[in-house]
Protein: Lipoprotein
Organism: Myxococcus stipitatus
Amino acid sequence: MLVRLLLGLALMASGPAMAEQEVPVYPGTIHTRIGNDLVIGGEYYRLAYFTTTDPMKKVVAYFAKKWRDEGYPTVVEGDLEDEAVVSAIFTREGLQRGVVLRVHQGKTVGFTALRDLWTRPPKSPAAGLVTLEGTVYSQDVTARDDPGGSQNRSALVVGELTDVQQRVSAELARQGYEPVRHSVTKLGGGTQVTMEHARKGEQVMTTVSSVDEGMSTVMQTWVGSDRLDAVPNDDAVRKSREAWEREQKAKSSKGAGK
């Protein structure tokens, strides 16, 4: 569900996010930020969500009127009953503000977004996150204020669960990651495989699930060893990190002796 919402936000018309700029706000509601500044699909975003008992059409009308009255090009999409998207381009600031609306348990749920059109984050390889042949869709998310500290990738891949799982494991092994833990869970009649791997103090958690016949999802999270929350949760991970630290100390000592 979250992947679909993020994809919907990423497909909204253009618009950027400066440090002093805030996400759109619907009056009388509490907005909860989703992370800090995020990098989604190679672009900077700020996201938040809110809930209200107001009907969706009223929420749509508020944002559409506000932005159009301010003179910004504004687009409204959706059936305005179960889902809707309102977005506006702030050309002078190089921003796009938007809100994605859904109905849930009788309430209107809004995901507000601020997208930076002018600034692009530096491209760097996503450590430990695999790209498989047959990938239909792939989305990377990182924290803007923590570059390289943690990275996430969601992908839809052609292939049965077992086949995709084996290909992920093979690619991680090729990159030098060692398996730490493996578990299989039955969820709602389906199967979900969770794997943990470690390399030089880094950790990668991968979840592979079957979503349809011949299709699987791959959700990965990579955490670097320099993060405070990268606490070893297994003896194998601890040993991997300690081996890497010894290797770094040996290199430093060797360099100092020259």
Q: What stands out?
A: The longest strand covers residues 202-212.
